[in-house]
Fold:
Amino acid sequence: MECRVLSIQSHVVRGYVGNKSATFPLQVLGFEVDSINSVQFSNHTGYPHWKGQVLTADELHVLYEGIKLNNVNHYDYVLTGYTRDKSFLEMVVDIVQELKRANPNLVYVCDPVLGDQGSMYVPENLLPVYKNQVLPVAEILTPNQFEAELLTGKTISTEKDAVEVMDLLHSMGPDTVVITSSDLPSQMGEQFLVALGSQRTVKPDGTMATQRIRMEIPKVDAVFVGTGDLFAAMLLAWTHHHPKDLKTACDKTVSVMHHVIKRTIKFAHEMAGPGRKPSSAQLELRMVQSKADIEDPDIVIEATVL
Structure:
């Protein structure tokens, strides 16, 4: 049975971010990916220069209408990431709701991109839309710590806080929540960051079971763009293959990330030369070169079940 994803994300001519980060890995893993490009830029905005166009909510609606008129609007997954515009995000919600009416089993994977390290980098009027409209229709959510705190209004200082925040997020809609990075201290020392996950499943007898996991992920001394988009895409793929086993899905997702980042860092330093800081162009993810790792990742990071 073929599995089809509608991915509504940014597009760049050069490099890997948004749809460019998500499409190839999903295709390699056997998914059909239909992409709507929320922006079309020359490159990501971390470069000194960038040019391009932004898709409006009305233009998004026109594209969706075309798909619908041809009766090819059947999807198994919807994947979304960075959005700056409130009306665009509301249109995404409308589309997800309509697709769910056509396929009640549709899974919506949402990376609620709001900000990081205590500051928002999208307009504040997006927060209530995420809380009140997006979360109720999302099945899988991949916030960082700051985003999880914004969405719940609670601060995370301990693992217990993180579990409570994930439970709150479950109550707002998504059955699967992965806090992709946090400021919690790692048991493995300063060189590791902590990620946490929680998944609610219904047991055969109708009762709820919750699996919670913790991951210690090696820190990398560089700024990458497109890694969050790759993470959400890989979590979509591996939860599809392991629907009731968040630990295995996360082991594979985080291991893919590790291999891609390691390959990228090695290449960037080779290109930059000794003692020189790699440029944005040199730090573009080595996606094509990582095809084998994406298809069958060697598990190098294992989650512990809490």
